[in-house]
Amino acid sequence: MATPQVIAPSRAPSGSPAAGVQHVNVRHISGFTVIGNHLVQHAQLSLTAIGLAAHIQSLPTGARIGIKLLAARFPESEARIAAALKELEAAGYLHRNRLRLPDGRVVTRTTSYNHPTATATATEPAPTTPAPAAPAAPRRQPPPRIPVATRHRAAAQLLAGLRRHAPQLTLSAQDISGLAPLVTVWLDRDVHPAAVQHALTSDLPTPLRNPAGFLRNRLTASLPPPLPDATAPATGAAPLQDCDGCDRVFRAPEPGHCRDCREADTYRAAWGA
User: Fold this and answer.
1) The dihedral of CA 107, 118, 76, 225: what is its sign?
2) Using CA atoms, how far apart are residues 197 and 161, in angstroms rounded to an integer?
3) Does the structure show a pLDDT above 50 at 129?
4) How many helices (H) and strands (E) does the chain have?
5) What are the residue boundaries of the structural domains of the chain, listed by start?
6) Whole-angstrom Cα distance, residue 230 to residue 253?
7) What angle do CA 54, 57, 60 make, to 5 degrees?
8) Which residue, of 6, 58, 145, 247, has the fewest CB within 10 Å?
9) Taking a C-beta distance cutoff of 8 angstroms, is the pair 261, 245 a contact?
10) What is the mean pLDDT of residues 2-8?
11) Using CB atoms within 10 A of its CB, is residue 214 exposed (0-12), middle (13-18) or buried (19+)?
């Protein structure tokens, strides 16, 4: 008696790919968020950063997204979440700035952008700090801040012009597109373009084999802290700050990291953790 044979189809049904992902979709009519492919297929962002951006964009206005809250919600560590937030900020999907409330507390306000170009059309909210009762003593003012609408373009132009001052920093259009968000962070912190240019073109290594990688590292490692709040009350105690690393409230004359985060950074730098 002949053994029966099972013969597999010679090819997939018409219209179906032979390999790779296949999609079975239903139409969402409620409870959904539109996420752009420019984010979910981003070539430079980590998968953690992409997932975190999608989560943040799905949240309602006013939702808390502190690092500790996110670490309690997801399995990623506080360090990974903090790094992902910095990735999104550098890529233009997130902006964090500090506000001083009338009671003296300093809080972090986070703005989520569903596309990096949204920063060009966003308007900066008016400061919530009340006007001082008396004029402050004269002080040296920083250079005028570049308007939001032109900051990203200014960053790209600054990068394209670096080769005038250092020919070895000639960048491709793709390199400029990837590095411009990092320069924008410097401009957001009121660093004048001339100062950014000097920071990027001084003390260059010889030979410089990877200009884009070198600039990415310098823009990240040498990022200056935000300017201190000129309207901080002149009291004996330092103002309250939100830690950049863990969102813990601590007292310090200017924003930054709490003592625990500074010690952790020192440990990681020393041991490569």
Assistant:
1) negative
2) 9
3) no
4) 11, 4
5) 35-115+236-273, 148-221
6) 11
7) 140
8) 6
9) yes
10) 53
11) middle
